[in-house]
Specification:
Shape of chain B: elongated
Radius of gyration of chain B: 30 Å
Transmembrane segments (chain B): 20-40, 133-151, 177-199, 206-231, 237-254, 352-373, 451-473
Order of helices and strands of chain A: EEEHEEHEHHHEHEHEEH
Largest sheet of chain B: 2 strands, antiparallel
Distance between the termini of chain B: 26 Å
Number of helices of chain B: 19
Keywords (chain B): Membrane, Transmembrane, Transmembrane helix
Organism (chain B): Pacificimonas pallii
Helix content of chain B: over 70%
Oligomer: heterodimer
Helix content of chain A: 25-40%
Distance between the termini of chain A: 38 Å
Bound molecules: adenosine-5'-triphosphate, magnesium ion
Strand content of chain B: under 5%
Shape of chain A: globular
Number of strands of chain A: 10
Strand order of the largest sheet of chain A: 6-7-8-3-9-10
Largest sheet of chain A: 6 strands, mixed
CATH superfamily of the largest domain in chain A: P-loop containing nucleotide triphosphate hydrolases
Structural class of chain A: alpha/beta
CATH architecture of the largest domain in chain A: 3-Layer(aba) Sandwich
Strand content of chain A: 25-35%
Number of domains of chain A: 2
Protein name (chain B): DUF3526 domain-containing protein
Pfam families (chain B): ABC2_membrane_2, DUF3526
Chain lengths: 239, 478
């Protein structure tokens, strides 16, 4: 069976600089894969390549077994993407933002669906009819997560999804992601939160200088050991 | 609802929310409405007035009492060119060339020999007419409205979100284009009203709506240029700067340059220079008032032989009239050849000017607009030719009366005393030789034919700019 996400010896050059260098991994259906790495390691670039925003200079990325460069539209149709900076319209309310982007995605949703998604990310009902300009960072992030949920795509690419969320919201978010994966959705997420990654992910990859330098899996039902990953992270950063 | 329409609708909501944009649109709408109404009033008055003046001038001519026919030749007559209905919108060269001319014997109207500079001032972008508002100010407003249309999404990071929803860049660009198109459609309303009004003044539907179509294509071409800049460039200040420069280039620099280049390329002699040459050649023809001028010896020999007589006194016709007709024909031939040469030069200048439409859509629309409205140089030239034919016709008809109906001896003796003067006249019924003159605009087909080249250039502008938008949007990067 083909994996929803696969990077094959992926290399990437951005403005003359090698950003990714021979990165290979697959994410299976229903799996949560978390990419860890220092600033500038190439995490966000990896996600952008899966979306076809960046073209590999070597190797290839496959979505549902199909090369992204071959059919960008198919890849984007299968993926819900949460960008690094939650960029929605400040002049629109949460409802308006969701309605607009879902319309563009060709997947319009009714008010009840929007409310259900916003409930899941715990955006206060009072805020939903306010313009995003007046939101806190975490509220904007929640709205963006709700958009990703509403797409109901088989694959989720999340770039620092917990950034800006308070501890309670982070826990709730992790539960949410696990539930989604349990429902068969495939998740590739990028994060700086080593503890969180170990809590939620089935597998953690360590990216450094554009190379995948480590991979940790949960063994027989246990969670990944945070200490081990943390140590590896610190050591490999120093190296 | 299709995504393209949705994007356009959101764009409109944003514009409506921005008071500045609404204010700007209102100001322009009012400006167009006011200039249109003002010019419409003026033209409607002038049009009626000119026809009345033409009729009045004819009636005064017909109503002249018994006179010496040559006095009527110098009494002269007026020809009026009523402004065509669409001059309401596009006065074109009318402002420069004038619309009435005086016709008399041995003289061609001065308009025929006006300084080329005036005629070559084909641009005439100076006056505030509805046409110049459409040609110059509306593109500027499109720039203000649209310079950040696409790049704003890039700046705010929403471009990535939009594209990540699976929407192709081309659809996003089409949505923005649709928003701009709706603005343009709104801008077209005053012009459509003017066109409809011109139809009630007698304009042909085809011409009126071709004018609307021409300006629509023009504004769409500008819209596409604006959109192309906002897709290709990443900073709004840069986009605004580049577009303002393009506007200056298209609306001011190229037209100025085109005027200079077209007069330089077609070397028209200055007025004084050509006047002197013409005068010298004119002298050689002899003075038609002086039948004894040696220049007419040859003619005299021929006419005497034709009637088989020895002296001019024996001729059955009035020799003075014969000379007047002969010299009028000679002189007219000479002046016509100069006038034709001058009009040929002006026409080629105008053609070269029109070619600069390839560098500036503003020139293309201005040329098309004049041609369709019937306020272009070609129409003015036809007026000059027709009024000259009118002049030559009535002057020669009077000269014929002079030759046939006024006795030579009486004519020669006309200055002896008052009684002699009174005898040297022909009956007023002779003045009926004047043809009624009504200058009519060219048919709509013909005007459209003249505008064809410029309309083609406009369409090419639209296709080129639109093509750039689509290609750039298809390969849009974050
Ligand atoms: N728009 C861009 N143009 C050119 N190079 C870029 C661009 N964005 C990032 N880079 C370069 O690509 C490399 C990887 O960047 P990337 O954003 O993928 O890192 P990251 O792992 O997501 O970092 P962070 O944790 O800070 O988000 C960096 O060296 C960065 O300088
Ligand atoms: Mg990043």
């Amino acid at each position: 069976m083909t994996s929803p996400l696969e990077a094959k010896s992926l290399s990437l050059v951005r403005e003359g600089n090698a950003v990714l260098d021979g990165v290979s991994f697959t994410v299976a259906r229903g799996e949560i894969f978390a990419l860890l790495g220092g600033n500038g390691a190439g995490k966000s670039s990896t996600l952008l390549t899966f979306l076809g925003f960046l073209k590999p200079s070597g190797g290839e990325v496959l979505v549902n077994g199909q090369s992204v460069t071959g059919d960008v539209a198919a890849a984007r149709g299968a993926i819900a993407y949460l960008p690094e900076a939650a960029s929605l319209y400040g002049h629109m309310t949460a409802y308006e933002n969701l309605d607009y982007f879902l319309d563009l995605a060709g997947k319009p949703a009714g008010r009840a669906d929007l409310d259900a998604a916003l409930d899941r990310v715990a955006l206060p009902a009072e805020a939903r009819t306010r313009r995003l300009r007046s939101y806190s960072k975490g509220m904007r992030q929640k709205t963006a997560i709700a958009l990703a949920l509403l797409r109901e795509t088989p694959i989720l690419l999340l770039d620092e999804p917990t950034s800006g969320l308070d501890p309670v919201a982070i826990d709730e978010f992790h539960d949410l992601v696990k539930a989604l994966a349990g429902g068969g959705q495939t998740v590739l997420m990028v994060t700086h939160d080593v503890y969180g990654a170990c809590q939620v992910a089935d597998r953690v990859g360590l990216l450094r200088g554009g190379k995948l330098v480590g991979s940790f899996s949960a063994a027989n039902g246990e969670r990944i050991d945070t200490e081990t990953v943390h140590a590896a992270f610190a050591e490999r950063q120093a190296a | 609802m299709s995504s393209v329409r949705r994007i356009a609708r959101e764009e409109w909501r944003l514009w409506l929310r921005s008071k500045v944009v609404v204010a700007a649109a209102l100001i322009v709408a009012v400006l167009i409405a006011v200039t249109s109404i003002l010019t419409a009033n003026r033209i409607a008055n002038e049009q009626a007035q000119r026809v009345e003046q033409q009729v009045a001038a004819e009636q005064t001519f017909f109503a002249q009492p018994d006179r010496h026919p040559h006095r009527m030749v110098h009494y002269g007559h007026y020809a009026f060119r009523p402004p065509p209905p669409l001059a309401v919108f596009e006065p074109g060269v009318d402002a420069v060339t004038g619309q009435s001319i005086f016709l008399e014997g041995h003289r061609q109207n001065t308009a025929m020999f006006a300084d080329t500079k005036a005629a070559a001032d084909l641009g005439g972008f100076a006056a505030l007419t509805p046409a110049s508002l459409y040609q110059l100010f509306l593109p500027l407003l499109l720039i203000v409205l649209g310079h950040a249309l696409f790049l704003r999404e890039r700046e705010s990071g929403t471009l990535a979100v939009i594209l990540a929803q699976g929407l192709p860049g081309t659809k996003l660009a089409l949505g923005k284009a649709a928003a701009l198109l709706a603005v343009i459609a709104m801008f077209m309303l005053p012009l459509i009203a003017v066109a409809a009004y011109s139809v009630t003044l007698g304009e042909r539907m085809l011409a009126a709506f071709s004018l609307v179509g021409g300006y629509f294509v023009y504004l769409c071409a500008w819209g596409a240029i604006v959109l192309a800049a906002s897709v290709l460039l990443t900073q709004r200040a840069v986009s605004l700067g580049v577009l303002i420069f393009v506007w200056l280039f298209a609306a001011l620099i190229v037209p100025r340059f085109a005027i200079n280049a077209s007069s330089a390329a077609v070397d028209a002699p200055g007025k004084i220079e050509s006047d002197l040459i013409m005068l010298a050649e004119q002298r050689k023809l002899g003075d038609g008032h002086n039948a004894a001028d040696p220049a007419f010896m040859q003619l005299q020999a021929e006419v005497l032989e034709q009637y088989d007589v020895e002296t001019i006194e024996e001729l059955p016709i009035n020799w003075r009239g014969v000379v007047a007709a002969y010299s009028e024909a000679e002189l007219t031939d000479l002046l016509n050849s100069y006038a034709e040469e001058r009009m040929r030069l002006e026409a080629s200048q105008s053609r070269i000017f029109g070619l600069f439409g390839l560098l500036s859509p503003t020139i293309a629309v201005s040329s098309a607009s004049r041609a369709i409205a019937g306020t272009d140089l070609a129409t003015h030239h036809r007026f000059l030719r027709e009024s000259e034919a009118l002049r030559f016709g009535f002057v020669q008809a009077l000269n014929e009366k002079h030759a046939a109906e006024l006795d030579y001896a009486i004519d020669m003796n006309r200055n002896a005393d008052e009684a002699a003067r009174l005898r040297a006249r022909v009956n007023a019924s002779a003045w009926q030789v004047l043809d009624e003159f009504r200058f009519a605009p060219d048919g709509a087909d013909e005007r459209l034919g003249r505008a064809g080249g410029s309309l083609g250039i406009l369409l090419a502008w639209l296709l080129a700019a639109g093509g750039i938008v689509l290609v750039a949007a298809r390969r849009v990067r974050l």
